[in-house]
Amino acid sequence: MQSTANWWWVGGATAAGLVFGTAASTITRRFVRRERSLAGAWWFGSVLTVAVLGLLGWRVGGRGELVVYGFAAVLAVPLAVIDWCEHRLPRALVWPQLAGALTGFAGLCLVRQDSEPGLRALAALAAAGGLFLLLALLTGGGVGAGDVNVAAVIGLITGWIGWAEVAGALLVAGALGAIVAAVPVIRRRGGKHNTVVPFGPCLFLGALAVVLA
Question: Computed from CA positions of residues 101, 107, 109, 112, in that sequence, does the dihedral angle turn out positive or negative?
Answer without folding.
Answer: negative
